[in-house]
Write a structure and sequence with these properties.
Protein name: Flavodoxin-like domain-containing protein
Number of helices: 8
Structural class: alpha/beta
CATH superfamily of the largest domain: Flavodoxin domain
Number of strands: 6
Radius of gyration: 22 Å
Strand content: 5-15%
Keywords: Flavoprotein, Membrane, Transmembrane, Transmembrane helix
InterPro entries: Flavdoxin-like, Flavodoxin/NO_synth, Flavoprotein-like_sf
Shape: globular
CATH architecture of the largest domain: 3-Layer(aba) Sandwich
Helix content: 40-55%
CATH class of the largest domain: Alpha Beta
Number of domains: 2
Distance between the termini: 72 Å
Amino acid sequence: MTTADEEILVLFGSQTGNSEAAAHEICSIIPARLSPSSSRVTSRVMHLDDFLELEGAGWTRLVVIVCSSYGVGQAPIGARKFREFCDEILRRRDGKEKRGSAPSLEGVTFALLGLGDSHYSTYFRNPTTIHDALTAAGARRAGELGKADASGTGDMEQSKVIERWIEGIWDDLAKVLSSKPPERQALDRARDETWGFCLEIFPEWRPAKKFAAMDVLYLSLGGIILALLARYCFFVIGGWSL
C-alpha cells in the first residue's frame, strides 16, 4: 500500500524539448492522480544524468522515464551518462565485459515513454537500451512501453501518442502504489550498488548526495581542529603576554 508522502521521480533526457515537456506534465499531474485519501504522493522531475550524479541514484520504488533517441540511436542531452550506465549493464549481461556484476534494481518499478523518428532505423534504440538494461538489472516495467513517433507516418501525431500514453498510464502506476512496497533494504541496495557500479565505470564520478554527509563531517572536524588551534594559540599568546 502507499505510505505517507511517497515520492515518485520523473526522469528525462531531451534533445528538442518534447521529452522534457512531457516529463514536466506528468510530474505536475502525479500528486492529483495518485494521492489516495489516506496519504500523499509527491513528485520531482530531473534529468536522468542528474539522478545519478546529483540525486545520488536514490531509487524510489516507482520512477517514470521519458526519453528520446538522438542521432543514430544515441542518448539526448541529460541522458548520456545514464546511457553509458545502461550500456555497461547490458555488456555484463551478455558477457562482453568481465569486470564485476551489474547492480541489482530489484524493488524498482519503472514506466517508460520513448520518443523518436522512425525515418531513422535507430529511432527507438535509446529507449530500448534503457528498458532492456533496467529489466536485466531486476527492475520491473509498469504499463505499456510508450513509442511516440515523430515521423508523421503513423496513425497519430507524436503529441497525440504522448497524450494517449500519459492518460493510459495512471491505472498501472496506481497498481504499483497499492501493492506491498519493497523492503527498504532493497532500495538501499539498489542505490548502493548503483553508486559502486558508477564509481567503477566513471572514475571521475562523485554523487553529490552520497558525499554531502562526508563533506559535513569533514567540515565539522575541520571546525573542531581550528577551534582547538585557536584555543591553543590563545593560551600560548596569553602566556607570553604575562
